[in-house]
Amino acid sequence: MRSSSYSLMAGAPRPGRRAARAVLVLALTAGAATAVPAAQADTPTATPAATATELAAKPYMGWSSWSMQSSKYPGLNPDGDYSYLTEANVLKQADAMAAKLKQYGYEYVNIDAGWWMDKDWKSGFDQYGRQAPDPVRFPNGMKSLADHIHSKGLKAGIYLPVGLEKGAYGEGKVPIWNAPGCTTADIVYPDLRTTNGWDSAYKIDFGDPCAQKYINSQAQMFADWGYDFLKLDGVGPGSFKSGDNYNNVADVAAWQKAIATAGRPIHLELSWSLDIAHAADWKKHSNGWRIDTDVECYCNTLVTWENSVNDRWDDAPAWSNKAGPGGWNDFDAIDVGNGEMDGLTKAERQSYMTLWAISKSPLYTGDDLTRLDSYGVSLLTNKEVIAVDQNNSPVARPVTTVGDQQVWGTKNADGSYTVALFNLGDSPASVTAHWASFGFTGNASVRDLWSKSNLGTYKNKITATLPAHGSRLFTIKPGGSTLATTSHEAEDAANTLSGNASVAGCDACSGGKKVGNLYTGGKLRFNNVTVKKDGIYTVKVAYVSGDARSVNVSSNGGNGSSQKFPSTGDWSTAETVSVQLALKAGSNTITFDSGTGYAPDIDKIVVPRSV
Q: For a pLDDT cut of 70, what percent of the chain falls above it?
């Protein structure tokens, strides 16, 4: 389960994106505590808990049930909303993954929301207030299913919403497993305040030691069943909720602690649309975190481009420096394998997979693996593209300002660069990657990763004409030389500041300073920018911006153009983007003008000495 319908809330996502979730929310809050016998399981052999880095050294790969069970595509949910989720269907997908995708690194089979719900979405719980599988959906229980998944050489994943579900409370009288004297009344606040993205659960009070014992009991149940992965959903701050009731950092820490003592390594993934201000907490206590709302459209396909695949290009840059071994930015499912059912053009499917790969998002598909089309197979099984997602290079981010045409890239350990070109516009357009954006000049060899072909040598740049929503993905190997440049600090006394613009301290900036307060007319003009000859120069701009902001950039008093700088994630992190400016031989000025809005803070510019 992911998001819900919050159309009546201030600041809610655009209408329609999640309207189908209303049924889910109502059912979650209406579930009754049903006495279901505790699942029997073999006692696991105690093993040392895996460290986060060992458990998530690379982004995970696999399949999730949610995309299909949430879709209105004909035939997917014939017995009512979300009815796709059954033991039989999960087994089919596990068998298909083993046959078709396992050899490429896909290994997790993840069961999403509803495994403890009947077809009317009423919850079932055992005598200890823990979720119990619905006997109609999962007649052989969750351990049997995990055993089958393991028999295929795969890993099994399961799901929970954060908090104590209302249906598990049982008037506060339900005992906690392996915790004599503890009941559900002990583990929540007396006023029964609610939490999670749907307010479907009571907030757990970790000031009482019984609370940790309840989380331990859930983690032990999953370990006994043999699960390798847990998606904890509705976590805040985030999920379009804020405030103390929705701060679940303590829950996430409790889950990390419980998993460490459960005797089985379990990957802990957090969802959905989490607050970036708590990125350090998510990384400290989990192995992955959703950075955005659901990718699914809750319509008659799995996804659509506008609702909400294309949102990731706007939202990903802020998170780019938050991920690494042990914890990864999760962009949600990659539904690129089923053609018509996906609801995307071929160009959109390729761009979708490209962004996920260069961002090192987990690669888990929500498609029907028994019905993959040939193009979908070519996307999901391209070893060179998968390697981009799984290698040890940094997460890619935009190297140009962000409009309809964008260039993203990162430097690899062998000195090459992974470079992606995107046309997010609704009509064909050309996109150019300049080698100067990456700090080198001259010739470079280019390999196209999607076509798996060497394109030859290109001098100083590569340009591609892309279809609407199209992309290209290259490996660029420099054969020329390091670009000779001159840096100009924003705080240099020779520059001209006007309006509100002022110098401020900046630990992340070169020289320890930047120019900020560029708003409603504030300007920064770099003076005496000298180059050897006339030409169009690729000027790198180092900046700081906690959100995406636009600024008019011009040279020598010209009109310039408005350039949108992607977020650096917070106001203490500096990043760079490149802009193209016409400069003349000799001395030039370069101006950053906030106009009527708010511009990013500027650290410095780096200008090639010659074109």
A: 91
Pairing state between β 513-516 and 502-505: antiparallel
What CATH number is attached to the domain comprising 287? 3.20.20.70
Residue 531 maps to a domain: yes
The sign of the CA dihedral 161, 165, 166, 168 is positive
Please return the burial class of 79, using the count of CB atoms within 10 Å of its CB with bins 0-12, 13-18 and 19+: exposed
At residue 49, the pLDDT reads 55
- Position 147: which residue type? D
**What are the residues whose beta carbons fall under 8 Å from the beta carbon of 395, sequence distance 6 or more?**
320, 321, 323, 324, 329, 358, 359, 360, 410
For the question of whether the overall pTM of this predicted structure is more than 0.90, the answer is yes
What tokens does 459 get? 């001098």
How many domains is the chain built from? 3
**Residue 257: what are its φ and ψ, rounded to 5°?**
-65, -40
Nearest 5°: the CA angle 299, 304, 305 is 160
pLDDT band at 54 (very low <50, low <70, confident <90, very high): confident
Bridge partner list, 560: none
Averaged pLDDT, 135-142:
98
Domain that holds residue 87: 19-42+60-393
Answer for the pair 490, 604: CB distance below 8 angstroms, yes or no. yes
Q: Is the pLDDT of residue 331 over 90?
A: yes
DSSP 17: S
Q: Is the peptide bond before 7 cis (omega within 30 degrees of 0)?
A: no
Angle between helix 249-260 and 209-225 (nearest 10): 50
Six token digits for residue 507: 């630990």
Cα separation, 56 vs 150, in Å, equals 19
Write out the two tokens for 73: 């595509």
